[in-house]
Amino acid sequence: MGSNEGKELPAIVRVLDASASEASRTSAVCAKLSAACTDPILYTDSASCLQDLADKTTDILIIDLETIGGDDALEAYAVRCPRAVIIAVSAQGSVSRAVSAMRAGAHDFLTKPFSLDALSSKIMFQLEQRRPVQTVAALPVPHHAEPAPVDTIPARPVRTADTAGHQARLIGVSAKMRDIHDQIARMAPSQAPVFITGESGTGKELCANAVHTQSERRHNRFVTLNCAAIPRDLIESEIFGYVRGAFTGATDNRAGAAEQADGGTLFLDEIGEMDLLLQSKLLRFLQTGTFQRLGDTNTRKVDARIICATNRNPVAEISAGRFREDLYYRLHVLPIHLPPLRERRDDILPLAETFLDRYSNEERRSFKGFDADAEARIVSYSWPGNVRQLENTIRQMVVMNDGVAVTYDMLPLVIRDQTARPNAIIDLSRERSRSAPPSRPFGTIEPLWAQERRIIEDALDAFDGNIAMAAAALEISPSTIYRKRQSWSARAL
C-alpha cells in the first residue's frame, strides 16, 4: 500500500523472518534510527505479511529471502509497497544474489549475520535519498455531483459551477505551481479581468475556477462558455442572450452567459477563436458593463468578473490580425501562464497518484501505486497532451489492468517506446547545459566504476538529484543507482 513518506508521521517498520529470534533482533534497529518509528511489526510467515503490505501503510520493510523462498519471490512484496524502503537480508550472501534482490525490488542487501549499525546506516541512506511525496496542494472548489476531468470542454456550451466536478483540483507541488497558487491568491480579491494562457490540457478552466472560488464572488455563479465549441453564428446569442423572434427557432426569451454570471464570474475559454466582429461587441461590454440581447432594443447592465483563456499566443494572433489589440489590453490585466507538464515534473507523480486513486475507486480496482520502473517512465515522459493526457492514460491503465501496483508493462506503448516520439527522449544537454569534463593526461585510463560514477552523477546533477528521472534517461532501473551509490560509499571506507 502507501507510505508515510513526506508526512510528519512516525515510520512504520515491518520485519519478516521465519526465525522469531532473528526477527526480534533485527527489529532492534529501530532504536538506532534517527527517524521516528512506531513499534516494529514482526512476521514469521509470508502470508500474513503479504496481506498487511497490501492493506496497510509500510515505510520500511526488512525481509529475509530464505523465509519467502528466494529473491525471485521478492517482487510480490515490492509491488505491494512500492514507496517503502526494502532491505533484503540472507544467510547466503553473494554478489549475484544481491544483484538479483535489487532487480526484484530491494533497495539494499545485507548478509547475515550483520550488525545493527550497518542495517541502520543502510536504512537511513535510503530514507535520505528517496524524494518525499508532499501533500498535494488543492485549491478549494465547491462540492458537486460529478467529477470533472482536467481542463475539459463542456458538453453544453454554457456551464456553471453548479455542474463542475467535486474532484476537480489544481494540483501542484512544484515551484512553478506554488507561484501559480500565490498569483491566484493575490488576484482573487480583485475585480480586474484575468487572462490565462497555456497549452491544451494544462488546466486553464481549473485555474479560472480557483480564482472564482477564492474571491468574494464565490457564492454566486461561475459560468463557463467555450468559444471554440459554439458555431460563429450562435456565439453572440450564447454570450448576450436573445428575445423571442430574434431568429428562426427563437421561441422564447433567453438570458445569455453574461446575464447568468451577474454577481459572479464569466469564464470565456478559448477566446482566441472568437470572431472579430463579436470581439468589438465584447470590448464594449467590458468597457461599460452593458449589452443588448439579440433582437432586443433594451440595454441591460450586469456586474460580472471576466476571466478568459487561450492556448494560442495572443501577441502572434494580434500580429496576424485575428485578435483585436484593444481587446487584448482590456483583458490582459492580470495574466497567468500555466506551464506545460514537462516543465513541472515534480507534479507528475502527485497527479498520477491522484488519478490512480480516483479511477481505482471508480472502477473497483486494487491499485495502490506504481512500481519503480513505471514511476521512472511516467516522470521522464514528455506528456505533450499535458495533464489531460496523463489523466486519460492513467484511466486507460486502470480500466485495462488490475493489480496492487502499476507495472512498466501496463503503460501504453506510446509511453513505453522512447523512440515513438522524438521529444519523448530526454536529452540531458537540453535539461541542463554542462561543461565538458576536465581533460586527463594522455594514456591514463579511468576504472570502469569511476566512469560509471561520473556518468550517473552527471545525470543526477542534470535532474537536480531526481533518481527516477536520471534512471529513465540512462535507461537503467532506479535500484541500480541506489546500489551503485552504496558501493561507492563502501569504497570510501
List keywords for this structure.
single chain; six-stranded mixed sheet; 12% strand; 493 residues; elongated; five-stranded parallel sheet; alpha/beta
3D architecture notes:
The chain is α/β, with parallel strands linked by helices. The chain is 40% helix and 12% strand. The protein has helices at 20-27, 46-55, 65-68, 74-78, 95-104, 116-129, 175-187, 204-213, 232-240, 257-260, 276-288, 314-319, 325-331, 348-363, 372-380, 386-400, 413-416, 428-431, 448-462, 467-474, 478-492; strands at 13-16, 41-43, 60-64, 85-90, 108-111, 158-160, 194-197, 222-226, 241-242, 254-255, 265-269, 290-291, 300-301, 305-310, 334-337, 369-370, 405-406. The strands form five sheets. Strands 6-8-11-14-7-15 form a six-stranded mixed sheet. Helix 15 crosses helix 20 (467-474) and helix 19 (448-462) packs across helix 20. The two termini are 36 Å apart.
Put the structure in a nutshell.
The chain is of the alpha/beta class.
Average pLDDT score: 80
Q: Give the strand tally.
A: 17
Q: Could you tell me the strand content as a percent range? A: 5-15%
Shape label: elongated
Sheet with most strands: 6 strands, mixed
* Helix count from the secondary structure assignment: 21
- The CA-CA distance between the termini, in Å, is 36 Å
State the low-pLDDT regions, or none. Answer: 131-168, 421-437
Derived structural class: alpha/beta
In oligomeric terms, what are we looking at? single chain
Strand order of the largest sheet: 6-8-11-14-7-15
Radius of gyration: 28 Å
- The helical percent reads 40-55%
